[in-house]
Design a protein that fits this description.
Distance between the termini: 57 Å
Number of helices: 11
Helix content: 40-55%
Order of helices and strands: HEEHHHEEEEEEEEEHHEEHHHHH
Structural class: alpha+beta
Number of domains: 2
Shape: elongated
Radius of gyration: 24 Å
Number of strands: 13
Oligomer: single chain
Largest sheet: 7 strands, mixed
Length: 402
């Protein structure tokens, strides 16, 4: 097959894939996040936990695979158990002493309808000194520590009469994920330096815990220590050549996802989460096919750039619910992207030396390049089906929740 025919086949294949994805794309997607809002006055501290009805159903069943929302009747019946659970999973500390968190009774239970599902609002009061502190410490590990490791918790200042803050449901002060400990929580406003570190940390963990992003990088790195000669893969003879291949791949991928991450964060271009996640799954399969068929690899940088754009939208889908306000959006975006790049660089620094060391091994091509790519394709196909066909069932079930 000539190079021009190979490129034409690539173009045709991509157009078919994107056509299928656009037809299959739906807006509904899993919302496994909970929010702790605080209302601050000079002498009182109170707030609410907002948690999805589907997540509460997971709690009731102690099963992360539950997709049907809990009913209002069932929530009312288990209200004390639910609030006791959140009381145990949320810790507020001032000057080394734990503050009392008291959840109000079921008569104060309210609900919030959002485009991402129905949320229950569990209201609480915090016992504080006569004057509400400016800074406390907070720990929160509801759901992700014992039920759903993919769950994330966020803390926000909803209102603060001391500085005139009202109806702030956008800017998130703290992000909680597995392995976290007590964190400093500024009840007036968060220091810019702490906000930057928070988003850098979130970016690092997102790339490390985003297994689809990691597998995409792995799929690219497998062939970075090889070169094509007479239509077949041969081990690279020079470290410089392999490093240059890796630098090109990482640079193109970084430029691409930075562009779309920025566009999506500022609301210039947005895509549905299901569509983006499905394309990311396809990206792994497409690059893996290029590893199996060297002639398709001649335009790999184009493939990396195109799919890198969609990975940027994937990053943005994670950044979007973090609620960056207008003033801090640029800072949060830059810090999050730095975190993503640091996480990505760590992956490359660990894997590249291993692949380069193994490139001359007789089993590298049949095992790493061929069998490994087949496994990656299988995983990608599974994710694609799960993220497209599976999303329709989840969307229909979510629609039943009242």
């Amino acid at each position: 097959m000539t190079t021009s025919k190979a490129r034409a086949l690539w173009a045709y294949s991509l157009s078919v894939i994107f056509g299928v994805l656009l037809a299959a794309s739906v807006s509904a997607h899993s919302f496994n996040e909970s929010y702790v809002y605080f209302d601050v006055t000079e002498t009182t501290l109170s707030g609410r936990v907002e948690v999805g009805m589907v997540d509460l159903a997971k709690f009731a069943a102690r099963d992360a695979d539950v997709h049907e929302p809990i009913t209002k009747e069932d929530l009312n019946a288990t209200f004390d158990t639910v609030t006791r659970y959140f009381g145990e999973r949320m810790e507020l500390v001032y000057e080394g002493q734990r503050l009392d968190v008291t959840f109000r009774d079921v008569s104060d239970l309210t609900y919030l309808d959002t485009e991402k599902g129905k949320f229950a609002q569990l209201w609480f009061d915090v016992g504080t000194p006569a004057i509400t502190p400016v800074e406390i410490e907070m720990f929160y590990n509801a759901f992700f520590d014992d039920i759903d490791p993919d769950h994330r918790g966020y803390a926000l200042i909803a209102t603060n009469t001391r500085n005139g803050m009202t109806e702030n449901e956008g800017y998130i002060s703290l992000i909680f994920s597995p392995g976290d400990v007590l964190k400093r929580f500024y009840l007036n406003d968060e220091r810019t330096s702490d906000a930057i570190m928070t988003f850098i940390e979130h970016g690092i963990w997102h790339i490390w815990l985003g297994f689809d992003h990691v597998l995409f990088i792995v799929t690219l790195l497998i062939s970075s220590v090889m070169f094509i000669q007479a239509g077949r893969w041969e081990p690279s003879t020079q470290l410089r050549q392999s490093l240059w291949n890796t630098v090109k791949i990482v640079t193109v991928f970084t430029l691409a996802h930075t562009v779309t991450l920025s566009l999506a964060t500022f609301g210039i271009v947005t895509l549905t989460a299901t569509f983006v996640e499905a394309v990311i799954a396809v990206s792994i399969a497409v690059v893996a096919i290029g590893n199996l068929v060297p002639r398709f690899h001649t335009t790999s940088w184009i493939v990396v750039f195109v799919f890198g754009l969609f990975h940027g939208f994937g990053f943005a889908n994670v950044l979007e619910p973090l609620g960056l306000d207008t003033e801090r959006k640029a800072i949060g975006l830059a810090a999050f992207n730095i975190g993503v790049e640091l996480g990505q660089l760590a992956i490359v620094l660990v894997l590249f030396p291993i692949f380069y060391k193994l490139r001359n091994w007789s089993g590298y091509r049949p095992i790493a390049m061929q069998a490994g790519s087949v496994v990656l394709i299988a995983v990608a196909v599974f994710w694609f089906v799960e993220r497209t066909i599976g999303s329709f069932g989840a969307a229909q079930v979510a629609g039943l929740g009242g």
